[in-house]
């Protein structure tokens, strides 16, 4: 009787073992197929946007208006670092002030003291300094601002009043859109008559010595320096 009872138990155990092994085999085979499928969809040249791909691409790119390549050359010992940094960040207001202060120093001590370019110092303009300032403005604004842009407008207009109107400095009737108050040392913009720093028109900035110092023509210095 004992031998007859052992046979069904052995058969049942064998069936259970086969079922377990079959289940394990199915699970292993399914996961292997899925892994192979995933690896097959990923290739070294995959252009899908990943964090690593973005950082690699951005690290090799250079902004079109990066000013680090512009040499800050001065024959007068003027430091143009502040001007470069303010132009790099498109802080047009600070850059306009930087330009005035730097070029008054570059022209000479009389100009720096009075806040206007002195005629005797204008006779020998600091050409390299003027070119440095112009290059910084030109590159920072993609050619929209700076002395070169202003001179081009003047050459095309062939008339100061028309050019100043185009640069939004003066109305055709003669009214100045940008006006100053002189404190004996520096000129400050009259409230309500400041330059447009938010969206400046072509040639609108910098405002240094253009049409305001009637004892001296800044355009003459620019022309003498080939600007």
Molecular structure report:
The chain is mainly alpha-helical and 227 residues long. It has a domain at 79-224. It is built from 10 helices and 2 strands, in the order αααααααααββα. Strands 1-2 form a two-stranded antiparallel sheet. A hairpin with a 4-residue loop joins strand 1 and strand 2. The chain is globular and about 40 Å long.
Pattern of helices and strands: HHHHHHHHHEEH
How does the helix and strand content classify structurally? mainly alpha
Structure annotation, total helices: 10
- Average pLDDT rating: 80
Beta-strand content:
under 5%
Number of strands: 2
Strand order of the largest sheet: 1-2
Task: Tell me the overall shape.
Answer: globular
Main beta-sheet annotation? 2 strands, antiparallel
**For the CA atoms, what is the radius of gyration?**
37 Å
Roughly how many Å apart are the termini?
A: 119 Å
Low-confidence stretches: 24-63
> What percentage of residues falls in helices of 4 or more residues?
40-55%
Provide a brief overview of the structure:
By secondary structure, the protein is mostly helical. It has 10 helices and 2 strands; from the N terminus they run H-H-H-H-H-H-H-H-H-E-E-H. Helix 3 runs parallel beside helix 7 (127-140) and helix 8 crosses helix 9 (160-166).
């Amino acid at each position: 009787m004992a031998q007859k009872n052992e046979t069904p138990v052995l058969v049942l155990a064998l069936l259970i073992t086969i079922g377990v092994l079959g289940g394990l085999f199915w699970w292993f085979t399914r996961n292997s197929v899925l892994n192979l499928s995933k690896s097959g969809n990923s290739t070294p040249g995959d252009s899908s946007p990943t964090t690593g791909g973005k950082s690699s691409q951005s690290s090799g790119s250079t902004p079109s208006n990066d000013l680090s390549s512009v040499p800050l050359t001065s024959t007068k010992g003027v430091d143009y670092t502040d001007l470069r940094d303010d132009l790099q960040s498109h802080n047009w207001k600070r850059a306009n002030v930087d330009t005035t202060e730097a070029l008054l120093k570059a022209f000479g001590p009389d100009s720096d003291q009075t806040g206007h370019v002195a005629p005797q110092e204008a006779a020998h303009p600091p050409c390299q300094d003027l070119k440095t300032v112009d290059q910084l403005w030109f590159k920072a604004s993609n050619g929209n601002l700076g002395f070169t842009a202003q001179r081009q407008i003047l050459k095309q207009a062939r008339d100061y009043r028309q050019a100043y109107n185009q640069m939004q400095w003066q109305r055709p009737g003669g009214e100045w859109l940008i006006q100053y108050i002189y404190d004996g040392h520096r000129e400050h913009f009259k409230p309500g008559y400041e330059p447009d720093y938010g969206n400046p028109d072509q040639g609108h900035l910098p405002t240094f010595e253009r049409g305001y110092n009637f004892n001296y023509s800044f355009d003459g210095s620019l022309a003498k320096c080939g600007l």
